Amino acid sequence: MNIHPNAVTATRAALYLRVSTARQAEHDVSIPDQRKQGEAYCAARSYQLVETFVEAGASATNDRRPEFQRMIEAGTSKPAPFDVVVVHSFSRFFRDHFEMEFYVRKLAKNGIKLVSITQEIGDDPIHQMMRQIMALFDEYQSKENAKHVLRALKENARQGFWNGSLPPIGYRVVAAEQRGAKTKKKLEIDPLHADTVRLIYRLALEGDGASGGMGVKAIVNHLNKNRIFTRDGGRWGIGQLHRILTRRTYIGEHQFNKRSKAKELKPEAEVVTVEVPPLIDRETFDAVQKLLHARNPKVTPPRVVTGPVLLTGICYCGNCGGAMTLRTGKNGRYRYYACSIKARQGETGCKGRAIPMDKLDNLVAGHIEERLLEPERLEDILSSVLDRRQERAERRRQHIAELNMRLTDAELRLKRLYDAIEAGVADLNDPALKDRIDGLKAIRDQARIDAERAQAMLENSTHQAVTPATVRSLADTARRRIRLEGGGYRRDHLRALAQRVEVADREVRIMGSKNDLLRTLVAVQGGKSAGIGVPGLIPKWRRGRDSNPRYP
C-alpha cells in the first residue's frame, strides 16, 4: 500500500490515571471516570491511545509510584512510544511544583507533551506560567489536606482510638464503637503473642537461668534458637527487638505522631499519648531502660562493660569527680587505679592519688561481703523497698479479686440467659438477646485476660517477705556467688551490688540502688547469676560515713 508523503501520522497518547488512597481504588471511586473521560478526550482529538497507566492508591506528593516510574521510563526511552501523556488534571500527575516541572521537562526533552483534560492550556510562555501557578495551588492544597487529616487523626488518638496502622506485637485491633458508618477501633492484648513480649523483658532483666540479664543480641539468639518466632513466623532481628524493649506502648502509653515521614522526632507538644492496656509493669520497663542506657556504647564504652578490670567505669576520684583508670608500672608488673584528671593535667588539675588495683578491688569486694551482705544491715537497707513492694502486691491481689468477681458475675449472667433459652422463655433469634450474650462474653473474656495478666505480674514480681531466715539465706548465697573459683571476683555480680565507687583521701565511698540490690539478691537466690548489668541511675544505699571502708 502506498502512503501519500503529506499524510499525517496520528498522535499517540498514553493515559495516566491515579487515585490518592487504596480505599478509593478498592471502591472504584474515580479511576473508571478518569478512564472514560480520557478515552473520550483522545477520540475527540483523533489521538491513538497506545497505553494506559493506572496508579491505585498512591500519593502525588512524591515520585515513589510504580506505574508513574514505568511511564517515565517509557517516555524517556528512544524512540518514544507515545507523543502525549493525558491526565485528568495536573494534580493527578504531581502535587509538588518543583518535581512536576522536573518531570515535565524530562518528557519534553524526548518530544512528549503533558496535557490535562480539565485544565487545557497552550505551549506559549504565558500558558506555561499558568501551569506552574496551578501546580503551586495543587501543592498548597495537598499540604492543607494533610494538615486537616493529621488534625483528625490526632483528635481520634486523644479519644483513645486506634488510627489503623499495624499494632505492636502483643496487641490486636478490635471494634470499640460505631459512629455512623465509621467503626472506631481500640487495642487489646493479644493472648497469642503477649507472653512473647513478657518473655523478652524477663530475659533482658533476669536472663534465662544460666546467665544474668541478657543484651539485645543475646535475646535475639535465644528466641531464634528456641524457635520462638515473630508474629509473622519470621526470625527476630536486633532492631526489631530493641524497639520492643523501648516502646512505651507496653506500659499503656502508646505515642501517636511521634515521628515525621522522614523518621525525625517531632516536638513533644505534637505527640499524642493514647492509653492502652499495659503488658509490662512500669518498674520492669524502667529497669530495662536503665540497662539499655548503661550498655549503650555512647554512654558506657564496650571495654567498661566487657573488660577484665573489676572497677572500670564505676570508680571515680573523690576529690575532683574524674574517672579512675588503670595505670601500669614496671612493664605491666604493677597495676594501679589512678585519677585520669591528675594523669592528664598533673597536680594543678587534681591531687588525687594512685591505689594498687588488687588492694582497691579487695577492699571494695570485702566490704560488700562483710558489711553490705550482713543480714541485719540488709534488712535495714531493704525494709522500705520491700514495704512498698508489699503494698503494690496487696493492691494487685485486690485488683485480681475484683476481676475474678467480674468474671464470675458475667458467667452467672450468661448461665441464666442460657437457662432461659432452654426453658423457652427467651428467643435465641432475638437481636437484643444476641447483643446481650455477646456483650457478656466480651466482659467475661476481658476479665479473664486481665486477671491472668495481673496474676502473672504478681508472680513475676521480686517481692520477698522480710524474715530473718530469708535475709540470711539471701546474704549467704550472694557471698558465695561473688567469688570465683581459684580467687578473684564475679565482676557482673559486684557491679550489680555497687554502681559507683568514690576514692577520697581517707575513705572509699560505695554507692548503689536499693531496687537493684534487691533484684540482684533475689536473682541469686533463684539460682540465677546476679549479673544485672551496669545501672545508669545511682540512688545511694550508703547510710553514713561509718558504713564505708577506710584505708591507711
Automatic annotation (TrEMBL):
CDD domains: Ser_Recombinase (cd00338). The keyword DNA-binding applies. InterPro entries: DNA_bind_recomb_sf, DNA_bind_recombinase_dom, Recombinase_CS, Resolv_N, Resolvase-like_N_sf, SSR_resolvase, Zn_ribbon_recom_dom. PROSITE patterns: RECOMBINASE_DNA_BIND, RECOMBINASES_1, RECOMBINASES_3. Residues 168-298 form the Recombinase domain. One of its GO terms (molecular function) is DNA binding. The active site is at S20 (o-(5'-phospho-dna)-serine intermediate). SMART domains: Resolvase. One of its GO terms (biological process) is DNA integration. Residues 12-164 form the Resolvase/invertase-type recombinase catalytic domain. Keywords: DNA integration, DNA recombination, DNA-binding. This is Recombinase family protein. It comes from Marinicauda algicola.
